Amino acid sequence: MKKRIKLTYTKVITIGFALLILLGAFLLMLPVSSKTGEWTPFTNALFTSTSATCVTGLIVYDTFSHWSLFGQLTIITLIQIGGLGFMTIITMFSFLLKRRIGLRERRLLMESSGSLELKGVIRMIRKILYGTFLTEAVGAVLLSIRFVPKMGLLRGIYNAVFHSVSAFCNAGFDLMGRYEPFSSLTLFYDDILVNLTICALVIIGGVGFIVWNDIFTLRQKLSKYSLHSKIVLVTTVSLLLIGTVLFYLFERQGVLADMPEYKRWIVSFFQSVTPRTAGFNTADLSAISPSTVVIFCILMFIGGSPGSTAGGVKTTTFAVLVLSTFTSARRSSYITVFKKRLEEKTARQASAVVVTYVLVLAVAIMIMCAVEPFSMTSVVFEAVSAMGTVGVTMGITPELSALSKYIIMLLMYAGRIGGLTLMLTLAEKRKQVAVKRPAEQVLIG
């Protein structure tokens, strides 16, 4: 009798994303997906599908110029599924079909949505679905105010919906190639409504579903928020403010030089929001200074928050590492924040996630530097953007070799499923030895 293969919850999620990417690649290869009516090469179709499903935004073709309406709809569908998580979408259909959701499905949902506990996970998924579609609808209405007069009624509404979904899911895909290929939102760099709407969608999608739940349930009672929500909100606000100020200071005499003062701050704020991890840009990123490249890489590496549509090592991971560093400096036994003590395993997990990301990025960058003619700065920027599922680029994506494209695909995939999930998927399940080994000191630092 054959032994039945039992997949862990993390492996189900990992394999599910891979199958979704392959399905998307097949659809995008079809002649009906391209405007020319020709087959799209498999590698480029797979790259686009991976970028959309992993809500990244790196592209080898301008989305508007190459893809037909069918292709664009395929891309935005992959973005929506990838942003919410395929288990959430499956649950939505279960709701519509009034199908009972079993214990295994509930555990999968808990893993997929980033929920901290099994209790109430179905109720939380309902809130996620309602909140997502309501937020995207409001964003589409606001964007329509600008897009409809410029593009016409139907095109304006379609573009508003596409960009609203892309922004909320932190994907970074755009249809502005109708004006200039690969231009992102540079045409609207000084439009306050478009900038603030896109930024709001990115931030709401990137803080995570657990934070949503606290905000809607507890509202102004900040003291009663979970520790997770407090850390996410404080870290997010801090990174947004620091990123805005630093971009303004570093680019005041650069890409911001010819702009009025208020427009400089609008562009600076937008560029602080989108590296975490939306992928839109309203400034020419190929012209930014080396200091700004460093800031971008840091923001992209950190990314959004757990249980959200964003990628990166996550804000909580970054915050825990910073807190752990200060705790070690003070020679304290416990990490304390907001009058609460963090478990020791939390710091170990945070360190493991960061080390995993750094090692994977280091290997990828070394290989790409060996086979590509581009500067190391451009390669590092591209790799970090892929791993953080950001999608901003210094313009080298379409020119990458086939090998580098596959490396970027793997980085996007690893970044979307998350560092911890990646480790749990690859690690062997070994039997624990019931022996406590003798301890010995090792010098650190």
Structure, explained:
With 445 residues, the chain is mainly α. It has one domain. Helix content is 63%, strand content 1%. It has 18 helices and 2 strands. It has helices spanning 9-29, 42-53, 63-66, 69-84, 86-97, 103-113, 121-151, 153-168, 192-207, 209-218, 227-251, 261-273, 290-302, 315-329, 344-371, 376-387, 402-417, 419-426; strands at residues 336-337, 340-341. Strands 1-2 form a two-stranded antiparallel sheet. Strand 1 and strand 2 (340-341) form a beta hairpin. It is globular, with a radius of gyration of 22 Å. The model has no long low-confidence stretch (mean pLDDT 85).
How would you describe this structure in keywords?
63% helix, mainly alpha, two-stranded antiparallel sheet, globular, single chain, 445 residues
Layout of secondary structure:
Elements: H1 9-29, H2 42-53, H3 63-66, H4 69-84, H5 86-97, H6 103-113, H7 121-151, H8 153-168, H9 192-207, H10 209-218, H11 227-251, H12 261-273, H13 290-302, H14 315-329, E1 336-337, E2 340-341, H15 344-371, H16 376-387, H17 402-417, H18 419-426
Antiparallel strand pairs: 1-2
Helix pairs in contact: 1-2, 1-4, 1-6, 2-4, 2-17, 4-5, 4-8, 5-6, 7-8, 7-9, 8-9, 9-12, 11-12, 11-13, 13-16, 14-15, 15-16, 15-17, 16-17
